[in-house]
Amino acid sequence: MLSIRDLRVRYGRSVAALHGIDLDVSPDGVVAVLGSNGAGKSTLLRAISGTLRMHRGSIAGGDIRYDGKPLGRLDPAAIVRLGVVGVPEGRQVFARMTVDENLRAGGIGARSADLRAAARRRVHELFPVLAERAKQRAGLLSGGEQQMLAIGRALMSGPKLLLLDEPSLGLAPQVVERIGKIIREIHAQGTAVVLVEQNAVMALNVADHAIVLEVGRVALAGTTAELARSEDVQRLYLGGHAESQATADAEARDAEIRRARSRGLTRWAG
Ligand SMILES: Nc1ncnc2c1ncn2[C@@H]1O[C@H](COP(=O)(O)OP(=O)(O)OP(=O)(O)O)[C@@H](O)[C@H]1O
């Protein structure tokens, strides 16, 4: 579905951000891109979504194809219309617009009113809070809700491939877990995902394949099970936290279920 070969990106003369990346994403895949600050994760997503050229002085080489079509010369809106839709880092919802207006702003890739209505129903099913808060200003939502809105807005275009840039950033562990479950659900409904994350525990739980970027190069690649077993990944990205994180995640999930039950809800109890 997505095939990247020898992707090289520079910002001006001095910064070489990517040094020849290869990546494949299958239509039923969830691929995590791990790496520390400055490794080139966001640059990779920008190159796929066509937004790289909005960054002054950027120069890209290599080949990015989606369903066989080269994306290199397409503008971001054309790439969205092909079904490749990004959720940028930092959520970037329109704070003064209502939740519903934000969702409508995301419908550019949907070809008809019927498709837009179906996409809106799907978003409301995945994120009931966005239906409850439809008329509220997006800036008043919590961080987790704004992330849900940012993902919901991307889903309004009916993506076949969703590009998520650090959806866990700045969110509490139980919210991160909820977002992780929703990403799995979106995938189960037939959307492939590229998930850029610094939170390796979350990413390895959610994805089926992963690459690790180190200063613009693919240092490791494999299934998430393989990478979770890799000593390098354990040392650098899981850092002995995997077990305690898993325990914390389980506790957070139990607390979430108790809260949901006390409100008479069972939706997140699974
Ligand atoms: N617009 C830009 N102009 C110049 N250099 C940039 C620009 N954007 C990113 N860079 C540089 O390119 C390299 C890769 O940055 P990138 O943002 O892709 O990394 P990242 O892995 O996403 O990091 P983070 O997790 O901090 O967002 C870094 O050295 C960064 O400083």
Question: What would you say this structure looks like, in words?
Answer:
InterPro entries: AAA+_ATPase (IPR003593), ABC_transporter-like_ATP-bd (IPR003439), ABC_transporter-like_CS (IPR017871), BCAA_Transport_ATP-bd_LivF (IPR052156), P-loop_NTPase (IPR027417). Residues 2-240 form the ABC transporter domain. The chain has helices at residues 41-49, 76-82, 99-105, 113-126, 128-132, 143-155, 173-188, 200-206, 224-229, 231-238, 241-262; strands at residues 2-11, 15-25, 30-34, 58-66, 69-70, 84-87, 161-165, 192-197, 209-214, 217-223. By secondary structure, the protein is α/β, with parallel strands linked by helices. The longest helix has 22 residues, at 241-262. The chain is globular, with a radius of gyration of 18 Å. Mean pLDDT is 87; it is low at 265-270. The protein binds adenosine-5'-triphosphate.
User: Ligands bound here?
Assistant: adenosine-5'-triphosphate
- Count of runs of 4 or more consecutive helical residues: 11
Determine the structural class based on helices, strands and strand pairing: alpha/beta
Largest sheet: 6 strands, mixed
- Spatial ordering of strands, largest sheet: 6-7-8-3-9-10
Global geometry: globular
Task: Using the CA coordinates, give the radius of gyration.
Answer: 18 Å
Which regions are unreliable across 5 or more consecutive residues at pLDDT < 50? Answer: 265-270
Number of strands: 10
Arithmetic mean pLDDT: 87
Helix content: 40-55%
How are helices and strands ordered from N to C? EEEHEEHEHHHHEHEHEEHHH
Distance from first to last alpha carbon = 31 Å
Strand content: 15-25%
